[in-house]
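I trust your eye. Have a critical look at both lines of this record:
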Amino acid sequence: MGGSAAGRGVRRGSNKAGAGAGRGLFASAPRAARRPRPPPSMQCFPSLVLALSSLLGALALLQLSLYLRVPSRYGKHEERLCRPRGRLPARCAWFLQELPSFLVPALLLALRSPPRLEPLGCRLLCCLFCWHYFYRTFIYPFFTRGRPFPLQLLFFGTLFCIYNGFLQGYYLIYCAEYPNDWCTDIRFTSGLLLFLLGMGINIHSDLLLRQLRKPGEVTYKIPQGGLFTYVSGANYFGEIVEWFGFAIATWSLPAFAFAFFTLCCIGPRAYHHHRYYLKTFTDYPKSRKALIPFVF
């Protein structure tokens, strides 16, 4: 019996040892710490692009219907007897209004995963759209000599810049697909030339308008020189050409919708400027057109 007990003790010990050895050899290794998953990248939803672009086109028609006969009440068309109470200095207002058009696409680009400028759409965005709004945000406001800007118009203008900045940036960064030889395509090259031409006309016309006033002046004078020789709204004509060039270069529905909105928004304003000049100045050139040289 003693031997049997000893045998049972040895067998129990060996069983425990074997069990321990088994657990040591075949037990699963401790799990490595899981790496945090990167945040989900934004995806392209073509239906969203179509919906936002269609809404932008509808807003363009609404803008045209509202201000074709009656100009928007700011600047030279602001009635003295019913000036809005809340207003900001022109430099501050222009900076705040245009800033989202630069920041929103830049933020979308930064959130892109991986954050690189490999797709051609991203390069188009940075070189054209953001270039324009960098000028409009960080250069133009600090040289303008316009009158104080109504807060109501500033609010709606800022909302539009957020909306359009998102639409153009979202499409070009997450949705646009171009062939490798797109930079040699006639649509890109012709659109780029139109964009540069329009931006040059716009900047030069703004410079001529600033030179009409001395610091502190708010009176209006007849603009002279440059494309103002032919049209009253040379700066507006340049911006319209610029954005239609952008639309051709990117060949995208959002860009064409934005170009159409620009035409419907500032085209009527050029027409009302022309009527204002003819009514205010008896020596205003009769051969000068409103927006399109020799045509309208």
User: Anything to note?
Assistant: The radius of gyration is 32 Å. Strands lie at 87-88, 149-150. The chain is about 60% helix and 0% strand. The helical segments are 2-26, 46-67, 90-111, 120-138, 151-175, 186-211, 234-250, 253-280.
